[in-house]
Amino acid sequence: MSDKITSGTDAGFSIDTDSDKSVLQELELATKKKEAKEFGEALGEIGSFVRVQRELEEKRREQERKEIMLLKQAAEEAKALEVKKKSKKRHERKSPTNPAEAVALDESTREYNKKIAKKRSFKLFLYIVPFIILTLCFSYFPLHGWIYAFFDYNPTLGISGSEFVGLKWFKMLFGNEVQMKQMAQVLVNTFVMSTIGIITSILPMLFAVFLNEIKSEKFKNIVQTFTALPNFISWVMVYSIAFCLFSDSGMINTLLNHLGIITNPIKFLDSDKHTYLWMTLWSIWKGLGWGAIMYLAAITTISPELYEAARVEGGSRLQLIRYITIPQLMPTFMVLLMMAIANFLNNGMDQYYVFQNSFNKEHIQVLDLYVYNIGMTGGSLSLASGISMLKTIISVVLLSLVNFVSKKTRGESII
Amino acid sequence: MESNNKYRAPGSAGKVQADKAPGKQVTTQSRRAPGSRPDLSITKKKKKTKIFNTIFNGVIIAVFIILAFVCAYPFYYMIINTLSANDLSANGSVNFIPKGIHLNNYIDVLNIRGMGRATVISLLRTVIGTFCTVMASAFLGYMFTQKRMWKRTFWYRFFVITMYFNAGLIPMYITMKNLHLTDNFLVYILPAVVQPFNIILVKTYVESIPESLQEAAALEGASTIKIFTGIILPLSKPILATVAIFSVVAQWNAFQDTLLYITDQGLYSLQYLLYTYINQASSLASMVRNNNGAIVNAATQQTPTSIRMTVSVIVVLPILFVYPIFQRFFIKGIMIGSVKG
């Protein structure tokens, strides 16, 4: 019997680590319950003694509480823990030989601690409530707008005044010949742009790999600074620059005119020729240097020993690139690639919105821009909501698919 | 090494050299450890490598110079053209060096109605928005390192998952309308406060700060808020700087929210105004011309192009100033971000 108790009390105060504690507590709890029952019966006969003991116990409990609170706070701070534990143990050794006391004390403190911990954890939660409300408002609440896809939504009447039309808009999307043709063109645009985007996503990696081959740090820095710059201006600015350089009276046309190469200005912006190519070039111009920074950061983490070993073996520079740098960058590339695939339908609309005009509308309209054009300009809010909804669902499916593939092939998820 | 090589194998190809030497010897020698006497085929190879290296270096340096030029020149071109005499600039004769420098373009453009107000709006949204985002990201990032928080993992996921879906343009617009945020300055601030990606960045960073610091402060009786302001904020400055930069650039460049939610001209942001100016530069130019009255001077007279370029330069200048100062933070931030992937 006494064996059990000492082991129990010991366990109660050996709060070395959290995991240790929890395991021991579980064990303890089981034994304690049993013991409590037995001792309760035994002690029933000596009630008066118990009453006196209880008073003592009360006092001791107060002391215990204080100590345990302190101990808990300092749980992982080694030094403090060391000191506290010693004092605790000393105290424990002096503590009552009466088993009932020890048991009751243990349980009450634990309960008390639990209560405090719960209160504290809830208080911590209360701090983030305002942010939860914000997220609810701007990320979750808008999802209710999907129901507009099933109504003939009229903004002036509100949802209660609008007529429920079921799947009318979705049927229209795929039933109507004209609509279908337009939709097909939009989808083709989206697919082409995204595919080109994914193919050209290898360029930042190559950029970083070759920039890394240059010895001069100064040159590297200057190149990095200049090429990353366009990433920090908006698409409106990019369009403005494009206008300055490529419009009828822009720099290129004026220059070519002066040189006598052309007499009529070349229409770079107001034409439907090579729309895909131009859009790709602009996104490369804007994103190349910035995209490379991530790879450059990844290159700095490659162990120099790898290169040294390869050089000793007589590897040439190209071989070093081919067999060390690129394979080492592959994980980064794969993560970005998968993100790009998950975002296949989300080209964003800023770029296409600023560059669109009546000439290139057919080939520049990607899904995001199409939603804007029919929703905000065309006024078919319901149809636009429907397309948004389909787009989001497909994107989420793509994301989970890509995540699944990533888990299978690389052993880690990208989310 | 170089002269040695020439002396041994004057002008003959590496392959011939290898053939001449007895086969066995070549193989043993080529397998020798570096530092021992180099055999002929290796020195030959080294010479070849050297030539290759020179060409290789030359090519990549040239390519990078071209790329840097292509990225930086448009900015330079616009700046020098806004400073130059407008008739020369319209001629296309200002390409590398500014000619006939004057500042009238800037004075005229800043006097266009709406310009000053839009600048103030853009500045306000950038400052307030960035402050809110940084503080919220820092606080949430710190709170999510507190293991005791009630249902911590659930709430963390609750925030992070919003990165991967959005309701779409129209539902968002209707929501903003229902919340009475259209034509309201708050529409620039509130939706941007909670940024899951920033929260991840800060959380990862805070986790790298030794926990004993927080424990010690708690032992001294510091509250959660006190620990946040006294320990976490000062210690996570580098990552907060990164978050701030991202936010500044995003806020300053934002254009879609004005396009969608704002119809009140008094709340237009500079970017949106720039967009409208680009499209109506001709009428603006004539307006400015009329304002200037009888004084006709070809060098300072506004043309549509000069208006466009001047507005663009005004919009891009703050970014050009901020960018080099904070460039060093980007890499750090990106590296922390890439840890998560």
Broad CATH class of the largest domain in chain B: Mainly Alpha
Mean pLDDT of chain B: 79
Mean pLDDT of chain A: 79
What oligomeric state best describes the polypeptide chains here? Answer: heterodimer
Main beta sheet of chain B, described? none
> Which CATH class of the largest domain in chain A applies here?
Mainly Alpha
What is the H/E string of chain A?
HHHHHEHEHHHHHHHHHHHHH
End-to-end distance of chain B: 47 Å
Structural class of chain A: mainly alpha
What CATH calls the topology of the largest domain in chain A is MetI-like fold
Describe the overall structure.
The complex is a heterodimer of chains A (415) and B (341). By secondary structure, chain A is an all-alpha fold. Helices cover 76% and strands 1% of the residues of chain A. Chain A contains 19 helices and 2 strands. Chain A folds into 2 domains: 2-138, no CATH class; 171-410, MetI-like fold. Chain B is flat. Chain B is mainly alpha-helical. In chain B, α17 crosses α18. Chain B has 2 domains: 2-83, no CATH class; 104-340, MetI-like fold (Orthogonal Bundle). Chain B is built from 18 helices and no strands. The model of chain B is unreliable at 1-34 (pLDDT under 50). At the A-B interface, α5, α9, α10, α11 and α12 of A face α4, α7, α8, α9 and α12 of B.
Secondary structure blueprint with pairings:
The complex is a heterodimer of chains A (415) and B (341).
Chain A: H1 2-13, H2 18-43, H3 47-73, H4 78-94, H5 99-140, E1 151-152, H6 158-161, E2 163-164, H7 168-175, H8 177-200, H9 203-212, H10 217-228, H11 235-246, H12 251-258, H13 275-300, H14 304-312, H15 317-342, H16 350-355, H17 361-364, H18 367-377, H19 381-410
Antiparallel strand pairs in A: 1-2
Helix pairs in contact in A: 1-2, 1-5, 2-5, 3-5, 7-8, 8-13, 9-13, 10-13, 13-15, 15-19, 18-19
Chain B: H1 2-8, H2 14-20, H3 23-30, H4 40-83, H5 86-91, H6 104-110, H7 115-143, H8 152-160, H9 169-178, H10 186-189, H11 196-207, H12 211-219, H13 224-235, H14 237-253, H15 256-261, H16 270-279, H17 281-292, H18 304-340
